[in-house]
Each structure stands twice: as structure tokens, then as C-alpha cells.
Design a protein that fits this description.
By secondary structure, this protein is mainly alpha-helical. It folds into four domains: about 150 residues, Rossmann fold; about 160 residues, Rossmann fold (3-Layer(aba) Sandwich); about 45 residues, no CATH class; about 100 residues, Orthogonal Bundle (Arc Repressor Mutant, subunit A), CATH 1.10.10. It is about 45% helix and about 10% strand. Strands 3-4-7 form a three-stranded antiparallel beta sheet. Helix 16 runs antiparallel to helix 20, helix 17 packs across helix 18 and helix 19 crosses helix 20. The radius of gyration is 32 Å and the shape is elongated. The chain binds glutamic acid.
């Protein structure tokens, strides 16, 4: 059997991390088996449709290397792969079920159903649709259809029996039919519901394994009844636990921790994000933590999927990100950092030095501008900053040191790291000061900060001779 799977998102907004994880698991599972991975856009629920959301799905998947073998843009023998372009296809299937007695026309209005729901609740019962219209005679149904009365088509779930099934993650799932609802298959506007289109398309597209979020676990018995009614083969199911913020809360739009784009904007690397997301709820079976997508294709196995909710730990993601940054080549680091250099106004400065001082320190690219802000604007600082306990420097000693340095710096040529470094060390030797007793005052005088990535030499070269001397002169004035 060739494995055929699909990722079937509804374009309702940005790409949720949970959705991205489903896509990744589906892709990895399929590639490991040498199967075909399909992208299908489930956009029949027009009320929830958000313009632009489909493009976000394409871009995010491509960005992460999750490439579909069949689907929108790339085509395939089972298209179209966008459900709204297939909309004529579903009604005949629903009518077939009506003829077989596995579905029926329902003319109940929303208000009528609400009233009966309220009555049931008043009696302390949980309401499910009461098969009211199942009992209309064939003639009555035809009369109403001819009169143009609005209708939906509902699944006719048997009142007895069971629709148990086995899930590859959750094991045996019990489902007495009496607990299942007669769900709507075709809506009043003639469009299929997500539930119906999903089953019809999974069959027509030859899907062998359905991988999706566990919120669909409870609907799956109803889908299986549809497969049976059509005489279609039921696919294998792999349901995935929900990605949670903690035991109780889901990741949410409001907290800014739900979407792929939230994290990219905050400066996370997509490779780190993909690696971390895959490990959320999947255990490789050993202690290994770092995987490229290629390596994941080899390593992934359904047996490692967990049944307990996956808790998204942003600190752990941050740690992953820092590790990924450390492992980048200097060139790759500068390439990834460039938009942030631009944001910080330091893109024109010496990128070798920037890379050397920043790559070991940055955990998140978004931290970068604040780390180098002193390069574009001298911060206000208090002269007490010159006092360093261990180095035994004071504002007074700093003034003397800096006054001695000033003409030497003015004369320094070339203005390179080596040149400036040798000058400072030579000055320390000549005056009998410790290196730090020279470096510290100078760094304070030209950066205004107690902590900077890199020291006085790096700061001086990044700033350039002119700016360094200007800052030094201003700081001396203030002393
Ligand atoms: N369109 C559904 C969603 O976005 C897909 C569910 C499924 O994969 O069956 O949640």
C-alpha cells in the first residue's frame, strides 16, 4: 500500500503552531514511508473564511520545508485541492445517502431546534437533534422541496450498535451510536459542512492515514458511519494531542503565543521552531534533541507520539533558538542578523566584529537592537560608572587615564582592532596600569554602559575614529 496523507487546514487566519505541528507530523510520517503528502484547503465554511489565510498556509509550509506532492499550485490527479472549487461534487453524494436511508432532509428552523434544545435542558437532558424530520413522509419531503423550503441534509445515525475504532495513538475508542448526533452534511446554502466534505474528499483522494488534532476524535465514529454507508474503506487514524500553554490554557492569539508568525517576528529561527515543535508530543526514543528536517524524516515514528497534552515551554524554545544561533556559520549568522542590524542602524558597521561579539550572546534576534543601541546613540550615564571596585578605578583616575589616552588615540593610524588594542596595552605598560584600568574607563567613556557585547577595542572600531574621539571628548568634558 502506498501511503497517502493530507494536511487539510481551514483558512481561518494565521498558521497556529498546533496546525503547523500537525502538518509536520503528517509530512514526516509520509516521507518516512515514501508516500504522497497532499495539501487540501478546506474552505467550505464561508463564515470563517479569512482572505489571505490560504497564502499564509502556503508560505508557512514552504518556509518550513513542508512541501506537498499534490495540492494547490502543484496540481495532481485528484484535484482540485481547494474544496470551494469542488462544491458541486458533494450534494450528489449526500443524495445517495438520502436514497439509502443513511441521511435525510431536515426542514427544522434554527428557532425550532433552539426551542427543543431549551426544553431538553430544562428536563436536565443533553440535547442532540431528535430526528424530527426523519419521520416526514416521502411525499411531504417532496412537497416541501418543491415549495422551495430551505433545508439541510443530516446524517441518520443508527440508534443502536457501536462505532468503535482503533486510533494509532489513542488506541481503542468506544462509541455507542446512541451518543452520536445526526450531524449536518449539507448546509442551507447547499455547501457541504466541513465534516462531510472531509470524508468525501479523503475517500476520493485515496487517503490511507488521517492525521489531525484530537478535537476530531469524538467526530470520527460519525465519519466512520459515513464510510460504511458508502461502502468505502475507512482510513487509519492518528489523532494528536493539543498543544497547550499549561495544564489548563491553550496557546492563544491574545497572548501572542499561538502563531508561527508571532515567533518569526520575535526573532526565532524557523529551524529551531520546527525542531522544537516536532519534539512537542513526540519522543525520538533517545535523548537526542537536535534534528534537521532531513534527519526527522528518517527518525520519525508514530510509536513516539504521546497521548498526554503537549505543554509549550517558551523558555525551552528560547534555549533551542540560542543553540541554533551558536551553531550557525558566521556568514549565516550575519545573513540572518542583517534585518536586525538594519533595524538597529548598525548594518554599515564592521560585520565581522558584530558577528563575533553578538553570536555568542544573542538568544533571540529581536534582542539584538537593544544590545547594540549604544552604537547609534550615546546613552546618558553617571560618572560614578567609572568607579570599578575590583579595578580600583574612580572618576578621578579615569579622567587622568583618558586625558593621557586622548592624544594617542587622535594620532592612531590605522584604526583597526589590532592597532587600537596595541595602543591601549602599550599605554597600560607605559603607565604601570593594569589593562582593565585602561579598558574600563575608555569603554564607559565611549559607550556609556556598564555592560556591552565586546569591549573597548571592539566598540572603538565599530564606532570609527571620529565618533570615538567625539564621544571621548564629550565624556571628558563631563568629568
Ligand atoms: N479542516 C480541518 C481543520 O482545519 C482539518 C481536520 C482534519 O484534518 O480532518 O481543523
Amino acid at each position: 500500500m502506498t501511503v497517502r496523507t493530507r494536511f487539510a487546514p481551514s483558512p481561518t487566519g494565521f498558521m497556529h503552531l498546533g496546525g503547523l505541528r500537525t502538518a509536520l507530523y503528517t509530512y514526516l510520517f509520509t516521507k518516512k514511508q515514501g508516500g504522497t503528502f497532499i495539501l487540501r484547503i478546506e474552505d467550505t465554511d464561508l463564515e470563517r473564511f479569512v482572505p489571505g489565510a490560504t497564502e499564509i498556509i502556503y508560505d508557512t509550509l514552504r518556509d518550513c520545508g513542508v512541501l506537498w506532492d499534490e495540492g494547490p499550485d502543484v496540481g495532481g490527479d485528484f484535484g482540485p485541492y481547494i474544496q470551494s472549487q469542488r462544491k458541486e461534487l458533494y450534494l450528489p453524494y449526500a443524495k445517495r445517502l438520502v436514497e439509502q436511508g443513511d441521511a435525510y432532509y431536515c426542514f427544522c428552523t434554527k428557532e425550532e431546534i433552539e426551542e427543543r434544545r431549551a426544553q431538553a435542558q430544562a428536563r436536565g437532558e443533553t440535547f442532540k437533534y431528535d430526528k424530527h424530520c426523519l419521520h416526514l413522509s416521502k411525499e411531504e419531503v417532496q412537497r416541501r422541496l418543491d415549495a422551495g423550503q430551505p433545508y439541510v441534509i443530516r446524517q441518520n445515525v443508527p440508534l443502536t450498535g457501536n462505532s468503535d475504532f482503533d486510533d494509532l495513538v489513542f488506541g481503542h475508542i468506544q462509541a455507542p451510536n446512541e451518543t452520536l448526533d445526526d450531524m449536518v452534511l449539507i448546509k442551507q446554502d447547499g455547501m457541504p459542512t466541513y465534516n462531510f466534505a472531509n470524508v468525501v474528499d479523503d475517500h476520493l483522494m485515496g487517503i490511507t492515514h488521517v492525521i489531525r488534532g484530537m478535537e476530531y476524535l469524538s467526530s470520527t465514529p460519525k465519519y466512520n458511519l459515513l464510510y460504511k454507508a458508502f461502502g468505502w474503506e475507512i482510513p487509519q487514524y492518528i489523532h494528536l494531542t493539543t498543544v497547550m500553554k499549561d495544564q489548563h490554557q491553550k496557546l492563544s492569539k491574545r497572548n501572542g503565543d499561538a502563531y508561527y508568525s508571532d515567533f518569526i517576528e520575535k526573532g526565532y529561527l524557523k529551524e529551531a521552531l520546527v525542531n522544537y515543535i516536532v519534539l512537542l508530543g513526540w519522543n525520538p526514543g533517545d535523548d537526542r534533541e537536535f534534528f534537521t528536517l532531513e534527519e526527522l524524516k528518517q527518525a520519525f515514528d508514530v510509536s513516539g507520539l504521546s497521548k498526554s497534552p503537549a505543554i509549550f515551554d517558551v523558555n525551552k524554545l528560547r534555549w533551542f533558538n540560542a543553540e541554533y544561533i551558536r551553531r550557525m556559520s558566521p556568514e549565516a549568522f550575519n545573513r540572518a542578523a542583517l534585518p536586525w542590524y538594519e533595524k538597529a542602524g548598525v548594518a554599515a558597521m564592521n560585520q565581522d566584529i558584530l558577528q563575533r561579539i553578538l553570536q555568542p550572546r544573542v538568544e533571540l534576534f529581536s534582542e539584538l537592537p537593544a544590545m547594540v543601541d549604544f552604537l547609534t546613540a550615546m546613552p546618558e550615564f553617571d560618572n560614578s560608572l567609572y568607579a570599578h571596585k575590583k579595578m580600583k578605578t574612580t572618576p578621578e583616575s579615569a579622567k587622568e587615564t583618558l586625558l593621557g589616552l586622548q592624544p594617542l588615540l587622535e594620532a592612531q593610524d590605522p584604526w583597526t582592532e589590532e592597532g587600537v588594542h596595541d595602543l591601549l596595552i602599550g599605554y597600560a605598560q607605559k603607565t604601570g596600569l593594569k589593562n582593565g584600568q585602561v579598558m574600563w574607563p575608555l569603554r564607559v567613556a565611549i559607550t556609556g554602559k556598564p555592560v556591552t557585547p565586546g569591549g573597548a577595542v571592539e566598540a572603538a572600531v565599530l564606532l570609527g575614529k571620529q565618533e570615538t574621539l567625539a564621544r571621548l571628548a564629550r565624556s571628558l568634558e563631563r568629568l
